[in-house]
Structures are given as structure tokens and as C-alpha cells.
Design a protein that fits this description.
Length: 156
């Protein structure tokens, strides 16, 4: 347990105890994933996982307009292998690194749709998408609205 195991059962083990422990571990993992599904600037930093996610989000935001910025660049900047980065992001957010990268970009696009008068294509390029049509499809898949519908609903 001190080496980082989530659970330990000695042999012979009770099947009921095993199933309860598995259920509780899955429940805990889902709770952690739900915590990191959305990110905001007012995010309260409390743990190393929070700091890791915040650092990854900050890194993506700093390279938002870079169309060539990929998950391998995130891994390099965070001093992790791509597979380590994938496992950590997947465990904390429930998303692959590529989907996590896209999600952060889409969140930034959402802010831009509300705060700026840039057209949809300009926002797409500003958020690292090289195809406005792909950006619109991805945005709708993630948030349930097209970018123009979202802007209309959230006019200030």
C-alpha cells in the first residue's frame, strides 16, 4: 500500500470483498474524472493532480494559435513520455490527450464567442483549428450547439 497500490487483498480472499473494493475503486475514479471534466480560470488548486491539470491547460492556452502544437509537445514540455501523459490525462479527465487538447481549445473558443466579435473562422484559427468546418462540428459535438447558435444564445 505504501508503494501506491489502490487496494490489497490477501489470499484466500472473499469474493464479496473483492467485488465491493472494485466497485468503490471505479466509483472513486469516476468522481475524480468528473472533477476534471471542466476547467475554469477560478479553479481552486488543492493537489498535485490539480497542479498537473492546470499546468497542462496553461500550456495549451499559451500555444492556442499554434496549429502545429500536438500532444507530443505537451508531453515534452511536461517532461513525460507520450504514454505517461496519456495515462495521466485519461485517468484525471476521462479523455485521451488529443481530446483533452481539443476540449481546452473549444473552451477557449467558447469564451471568445461570448467576448469578441470575431467571426467563426477567425475564432477557429485563433484556437488552433485549421478547418472552420471541423471546428464547428467539434464544437457542436462537445456542447450541443453550433458556434453561431451558441453565440446567439449567449449574447450579452
Amino acid at each position: 500500500m505504501t508503494a501506491g497500490a489502490d487496494a490489497y487483498l490477501s489470499k484466500p480472499f472473499d469474493e464479496t470483498e473483492l467485488l465491493v473494493r472494485i466497485e468503490k475503486l471505479i466509483e472513486l475514479r469516476k468522481t475524480i474524472q468528473n472533477k476534471y471534466r471542466s476547467f475554469s480560470d477560478s479553479y481552486n488548486h488543492k493537489s498535485l493532480d490539480d497542479d498537473f491539470i492546470s499546468e497542462a491547460v496553461k500550456l495549451i492556452r499559451n500555444h492556442l494559435t499554434d496549429l502545429q502544437f500536438k500532444t507530443s509537445d505537451i508531453a515534452f514540455a511536461l517532461h513525460l513520455s507520450e504514454s505517461q501523459l496519456y495515462r495521466k490525462i485519461k485517468a484525471l479527465s476521462g479523455r485521451s490527450t488529443a481530446l483533452f487538447l481539443m476540449y481546452v481549445r473549444l473552451e477557449e473558443a467558447k469564451k471568445m464567442l461570448i467576448k469578441t466579435n470575431l467571426n467563426i473562422s477567425e475564432i477557429a484559427y485563433s484556437c488552433g483549428f485549421n478547418d472552420p468546418a471541423w471546428f464547428s462540428r467539434s464544437f457542436k459535438d462537445e456542447f450541443g450547439y453550433s458556434p453561431s447558435e451558441f453565440r446567439e444564445v449567449n449574447k450579452v
